[in-house]
Q: What sequence folds into this?
């Protein structure tokens, strides 16, 4: 007697899962986490070097092209990784459909609004508007 | 199946269906604590991301705005939050590496998982304390 199949052959080769997005969320969270290993170490080292420094020194640091690019990558990856992680938390604990969808949308908006605000501040410093 | 088993019970689930045991059912283990801490530090870091945005915005606006941030960060509460941020980041980073090892198929043996969980707790505290100490020395004007 063969095992009962719960997946169709077509479903298996498509690999999309019940939500039609399959492993994308899992993979995106992992790839962003790999990027955040060096970026977060660089960020903490940078921030620690400027504890108690004057505003001009911090702005000058982010006006350096290498620092501006690394910080920009750090901000984008933080916003993306946070939105994916918080999405999982919402999906795990909020079961009422309307509340869940509202929070999922709010989560995406909030993460990218914070990211955009941080990115805008960075661009101002990168282009010397200080 | 009797009719009562299929009728909706608490939470809309049919009676007779198994429920997954929740936190208060399981005996605490370090791997369970490590998993919960990973999620808690992740949420804390999302809140910390807002503070990071504040820091950058303040730095981009000029000395007055930056002084407001600096004074807030220099209070006792500010320093506790900064230490919490450093520990959360250290923990989430180290335990994230533990997760990536699992994703590639390593570290699944129960004794290994217990040891790595303890190492993550210990390592994150050391990293955070070290980073905080460096921050204090930089603030005091000592060269590191």
A:
């Amino acid at each position: 007697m063969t095992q009962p199949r719960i997946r169709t052959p077509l479903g298996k080769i498509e690999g999309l899962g019940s939500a039609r997005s399959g492993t994308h969320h899992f993979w995106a969270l992992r790839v962003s986490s790999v990027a955040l290993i060096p970026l977060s170490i660089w960020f903490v080292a940078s921030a620690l070097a400027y504890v108690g420094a004057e505003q001009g020194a911090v702005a000058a640091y982010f006006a350096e092209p290498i620092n501006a690019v690394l910080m920009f990558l750090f901000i984008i990856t933080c916003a993306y990784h946070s939105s994916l992680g918080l999405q999982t938390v919402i999906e795990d604990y909020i079961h009422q459909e309307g509340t869940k969808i509202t929070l999922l949308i709010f989560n995406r908006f909030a993460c990218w609004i914070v990211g955009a605000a941080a990115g805008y501040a960075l661009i101002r410093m990168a282009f010397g508007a200080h | 199946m009797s009719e009562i088993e299929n009728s909706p019970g608490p939470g809309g689930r049919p009676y007779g269906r198994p429920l997954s045991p929740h936190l208060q059912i399981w005996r605490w283990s370090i791997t369970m604590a490590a998993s919960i801490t990973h999620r808690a530090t992740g949420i804390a870091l999302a809140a910390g991301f807002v503070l990071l945005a504040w820091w950058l915005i303040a730095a981009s606006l000029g000395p007055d705005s930056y002084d407001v941030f600096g004074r807030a960060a220099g209070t006792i509460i500010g320093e506790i939050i900064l230490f919490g941020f450093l520990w959360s980041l250290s923990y989430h980073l180290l335990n994230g590496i533990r997760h990536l090892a699992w994703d590639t198929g390593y570290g699944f043996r129960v004794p290994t998982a217990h040891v790595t969980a303890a190492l993550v707790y210990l390592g994150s505290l050391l990293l955070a304390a070290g980073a905080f100490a460096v921050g204090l020395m930089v603030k005091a004007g000592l060269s590191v």
